[in-house]
Amino acid sequence: MGNALRFLCSQCSEPSPDSDAVAHHGVTVDTVGVSALVHDLYNFEITNQVPQELGKHVVSSRKAQANWYRKLSEAWRETKPPPKSPEEASRLVILTLKRHQKADVEGLLTFYGLPLPHSLVELTTEAPSSQQQGLKFELHTLPVDAKAVADGDTVTVYVSTMDSRESSSVPKAVHVAAVQRSKARAQRNYDRADELHKQIIDAGYRVLNIDNEEILARKYRIRLRGIDAPESKMPYGQEAKEELTKIVQNKCLRVLVFDEDRYGRSVGDIYCNGIFVQESMLKKGLAWHYKAYDRRAELDKWEKEARAKRVGLWAASNPEMPWDWRKDRREGR
Question: Which of 9, 228, 237, 251 could be cross-linked to 232 through a Cys-Cys bond (beta carbons 3.0 to 4.6 Å apart)?
Fold first, then answer.
């Protein structure tokens, strides 16, 4: 029984190699609460003891608290894959302890810094009904770097050239440069290796090190289809960027590409672990439905839901729309 949670504890506590924000468990600040909860569940299976400080946040007895941890331990082990994000962990706690007092559930979540019930959004499991119309191609990406998120509606992704769609279209010069770079690194000629890598990057590719394996990958800049997030200098611009980063960081994405915009970005729908990313951004009030380019009724409905709840940017009475903001800047207003 303990082995399963020991594995989960090691997985949640493993630091992200590209993260600058690392907390005391060696994980990012966003996931430290998840790691702490897993650690305490594992400790409970060994000692039958709950955290001493928990009593300051809940109203029920230590005996009742032990009952919660027993239930949570079982639920966590049975969930495949196990929760990793704060939202996923919070949902599991709420579902597992749904028959317990609200004050206890919210106190437990607060103790671990996990989202409270009112802050979570319910996401659908189905894609928008019209999502396949006009589909050009589908991408399956390598894990996304946090630094690849430009703002709340744009992210750079990489697709392995071993992918069936990519393998036949790699330019010969890129292939040759990748082989030569590998040889240069083996000979410790790092200046030459860097020079060759620059050639690869200039051609729209990059060599990525993933799990100690070097992978030649093609670069795609993705513009999320159907939404327009606040620009970085607008209110909620940084919050939108942080939310998109939280969703996609270190995840492999499924991207359905429908078009290319005037900036050379692929316009597409992004799915991450079954989550439709545009839905999440709209429901959290961190983007507008971009009706000038997208007529899907679902996206319009999700924006209206966020407006009604006054979440995110809709907390303001009359938030400025990003397309108007960009136009004013172009015209020097």
Answer: 237
Residues 278 and 269: beta-carbon distance below 8 Å:
yes
**For residue 282, pLDDT beyond 50:** yes
- The tokens for 306 are 């966020």
At 190-236, the pLDDT tens digits run 999 999 999 999 999 999 998 889 999 999 999 999 999 999 999 99
Per-residue b/e over 53-73, b at no fewer than 16 CB within 10 Å?
A: ebeebbebeeeebeebbeebb
Closest CA to 222 of 282, 159, 290, 155: 155
The catalytic residue positions are 223, 231, 265
